[in-house]
Structures are given as structure tokens and as C-alpha cells.
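[User] Could I get a sequence and C-alpha cells?

[Assistant]
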Amino acid sequence: MFFADKCRAEYGINFPPPAADVAQEIYDIHMLTMQITTVLLLIVFGFVFYSLYYHRKSRGFEADQDFHNSWFGNWSWVVVPVMVLGVDLTIAGKADAVLKKVWDVPKAENILDVKVTGHQWWWEFDYLDHDIKVESRYVPEKESGDLYLREVDNRLVLPTGQKIRFLHTSADVLHAFWVPELAVKKDAIPGYVTETWAELNREGVFRGQCAELCGTWHSRMPIVVESVSPQQFAAWVDDQKAIKVAAAAEASADKTWSLDELMAKGKTLYDTKCAACHQVTGMGLPPAFPGLKGSAMVTGPIEAHLEIVIKGKEGTAMQPWGSLNDLEIAAIVTYERNAWDNNTGDVVQPSDVKQAR
């Protein structure tokens, strides 16, 4: 019984309730298609059951060897395709109009631009109009509970009643941004920028997923959209800007940080930004993601360690992390050089990172 409870699937079989007008139109077309399909299914199965019952051998029925020359045998090849084509055309007119609406991003003065960048394996959301950047990563099972692989540390917060333009791209391989309630599903392609849009009509939390097989941890790229009122969104923007200012002030402060302070800050940053590839244990996933425990790079010269963190390594999955501030990089490098029994005793200060840039 316990095993059955764990394996029981979700009983809901339809699309989730839409949260945008375009998504509602797509949902309506889906329901129209299902209604037509249901009627056709009943008609076809009616003929099948009728034929099985009245034409069974026990009633002495003998197969018509000349059926193909009968009226129905000749005209069914025309009638059936015409009926199918009629169904297609019934749906196609509405579907074409909705498809144009989906792909044609409306021009509006107050449209909110959000750049969506896929990474292996996390999402980056840039609110271009507000100079805010949000990094969104999955939450481990012990913290997410029933929402394992469905919850993130930082949600994509969006306002209702405002048109939102999503600009999709990728920093490494193909990804795909997909949130069913918003109607959008768009590939994120390295070196290209593609567009979709939405206008949320209700508040709530909507969950999606990367819909393009993007590597080992493809399943660890959930998307969580939190739709809030315009007033709540404005307050959230103010909070994010205040956090950004405070972080910049802390990073630029003329302070000498202790090993313990950098290790505490570095562990938090490492677990969110680096552990996806190099693992929490520092063992990595060789050969693509080398281990850092006992690594010659991590225990070698500090200058080389800083360079690969800041600039990345061309031709590998190691991307540049120069967008982090000096304190964040100093904390990560200090943590890597002293965690997992590396114990170099090295303390990297923000001033060292500034000089390495």
C-alpha cells in the first residue's frame, strides 16, 4: 500500500487553467478539438460495435466478397477524407489567428522586457527596464519536499495586466522556456535571441520546465512564475534594487575579510552557483566537470584559480563568472581552496580579485 501511494499518478488529465488571454484561446481550441474528436470517436465506435454484433459468424453472416464494388466501398474513400478535412478546416481558422497572436509580439509603450537565458542547469532572468538580474535554480529534495524538481530558490516575478516580452537565448546549449499557463514554449538558442510574450490576467504561482533535452541535469531546470498585482511588483522591484545596492556597497567596502567569514559566504555561493557541475562534495562529474577536491588547479597558484573563475575556459563547460562582484568571487575561491580537505589556508580578498580582473 505504501508503494502504491508513492507511485500514484496525478489524476488531472486536462491542461492547467490558463493565466493569460492567449493561453485561454489556445485552451478553447484544445477543448473544441476534443469535443469534435469525442463525437467522431462515438460515431466510429458505434459503427464498429454495430458491425461486430450484427455481422458475427454465430448469426450465420458471410463476408461480402464484392464489398469494394458497392456504393459505400467506392465513395467511402472520398467521404471519409472530406469529413476529416472538414474537421481540420473547422479548427484551422481559429488556430491560425491564435498562432499569429502568439508569435507577433505587440507593440506597447509600457511593455516589460525580460531576457531569459538558459544555462546548464539554471535560468537567468534580466529585467531590462529595471536593471535587475535574478538567478533561478532548483531546490534540493530535502528542502522542496513534495515540490522536488518543481521549486526554485528565486521565482520569476511578473505583474498582472501588463504585456511582457520574453527575449530568449542560451549561454551554452539548447534550452526551452515553457510555462503551460502562459502559453509560451520557446527554444533558447546560443547566439540567437527569440521573442514570445504574455499578459497575465490573474495572480498565482505557475510552474514550468525546460522543454529541450539539455544535458545530464535537464530535469533540474524548473521554472516558477509568481504573478502578482502591479503594486506588489513595484514593491518587489524596490526590494531587489535595495538588495543590489547593499551587495555592491558590501563588496566595495574597504574591509579585510577573515577566513571564517569568506568560508561561510563562499559555501552559500558555491552551493548555488557551482555545485550543479562540481557537486557539493567537490567530486565533480568527470570528464565534463572535473572534481575540485585535491585539484591541482584549486590547490595551485591563486592567480590561475582566479583567472579560470573570472574568465572561464574556452572549449569547456566552464563559463566565465566575471559578472559576480569582487567579494563573491573572493568568497568562492577561498571556499574552494579550503573545503573538502584542500586546506591550503589561502584567504583571497576582494582587492585580489579586483587586481586579477
